[in-house]
Amino acid sequence: MSDEETGTVGRAVTAWRARWFPEAPLSDLAVARVLLATVVVYLNAGGLRFSLVPRAPSIAWEPVSFLAAAGAEQPTAAWLHGLHLATSVALIATVAGLATNVAMAAAFVLQLVQEGLLNSLGKVTHSTIPLLHAMLFFALAPCGGSWSLDASFRRWHQRSGRSARSPSARSASAPPTSRFARWPFELLLLELAFYYFDAGLTKLVTSGPAWADGYTLQYHLLHHDTSVGRLLAPHLAICALLSTAALAFELLFPLAVVFRRLRPYFLAAGVCFHLGNHLLLDLIFWPVLAVYPLVVPWSVLQRRVAALFHRYGTLRRERLSNEGTDHE
Length: 328
Known about the structure:
The protein is mainly alpha-helical.
């Protein structure tokens, strides 16, 4: 390999590491870990979401591929309750940060099994796919490195040892950043991009550009018959505009992966997209929407809010000082 080729490869590797493995705050992973586990606890709704599985007629039981390969049969209510209980324990341990990676991995496997059971009744849904991927990604990342019992135990153990008396040991305790703290967010955003792009591409493949002519949306508005939908359905031009905007959002979302400055705009558009579906069609894939807070750079947001308050405080003190001078 020539020196020029070696330099090109070296630059590519450096760019790859800068994109996926920069030093990043562990606190962002901690916030995302707590949010994710809390969302999944709420999603499971005390096990009620899966209660139909053991009560469904046996003729409706068609196990999805990985359950069929494992020879899974339709579960009993007691077995499903035990599965839900084990999932809840794993999720609570994840929130507390106790054996964090093991707990998150266990929660992922248990949740995957339950989602598979729910999708083995003839209708396959995909709204929880991003959440499941998020659980997998965070299980492989140092999400227990901050704001966790694991981190507290490590600090206590290091302080109690002889080496903890040295400055170098104290600085090594619970590092605030890690080069493995950023890749789960980048991969999760890539997952969202694929999720939306696949939906948009499917529309084009099945219906072509005519999907956005307004008639398709008109049909669904009349079919779902929501109050807002009834008001909008007679206006074909508006239906065409909304359809084009939705298709553009889905197909262009991958740009948010490449250009980080576009991410807030695409996430804001995504919120509008899902809320619009809820108002017009009474459809909302809220588990997908629940992934959005996970990719927010909370440490950056915290710094900007703190800087804003600091600036406001400085301006207020200067104004009060000027008013005092004027009175004198």
